[in-house]
Specification:
With 169 residues, the chain is α+β, with helices and mostly antiparallel strands. The protein has one domain. Helix content is 17%, strand content 28%. The protein has 4 helices and 8 strands. It has a 3-stranded antiparallel beta sheet with strand order 3-4-5, covered by helices on one side. Strands 6-7-8 form a 3-stranded antiparallel beta sheet, with no helix packed on it. Strands 1-2 form a two-stranded antiparallel sheet. β6 and β7 form a beta hairpin. The longest helix has 9 residues.
């Protein structure tokens, strides 16, 4: 997915972002990512199996991968990264095709996160398009790969009601 020639890219008619194979299906990169984590706030940053993940308020987890090779990005200070990223919202994204020194063409994919108190500019984070393909989805996300029928869903969350009034404490 990362090693792509510019003339092979198919662009989405709605937003001009590349259409890529994500979760085994063709998706517009921007629409897929926006559906899952657009306008969502980062609540945590975790390191799992040497990969740094941004955890969003809706429980999606986005791995940070190098845009040119797809390997996990290094994090020298996890606590500092947590302080730096918590509370930011994904507000936009950009992409461009870049030719590397070895002649490969890759997609330079950048996520724009909201600024925090005292900052004047949003924060750009460069990552691989593979991050979208390797995103961890909560069970109820349409992209989780788990289908739950209406019957199964309703029985799992059926509330119990009581005619008794409850006192507030």
């Amino acid at each position: 997915m990362t090693d792509t020639k510019p003339n092979q890219l198919v662009e989405c008619e709605r937003d001009g972002f590349p259409i890529l194979n994500i979760n085994g299906e063709s998706h517009c990169l921007a629409e897929f990512v926006n559906f899952c984590i657009g306008r969502q706030k980062i609540t945590d940053v975790v390191l799992r199996n040497d990969t740094l993940y941004y955890v969003f308020e809706n429980r999606h987890e986005l791995p940070l991968l190098c845009y040119c090779c797809g390997e996990p990005l290094a994090c020298s200070d996890l606590q500092a990264e947590k302080r730096h990223m918590r509370g930011r919202k994904l507000q936009a994204m950009t992409w461009d095709v870049e030719e590397l020194e070895d002649g490969r063409n890759v997609i330079d994919y950048q996520l724009e996160f909201s600024s925090k108190y005292g900052e004047t500019e949003p924060l750009l984070v460069q990552t691989s398009t593979l991050s979208a393909d390797q995103m961890v989805h909560p069970i109820l996300c349409a992209h989780s790969g788990i289908s739950i029928s209406n019957d199964e869903f309703h029985t799992a969350v059926t509330p119990s009601f009581s005619n008794k009034k409850r006192k507030r404490r």
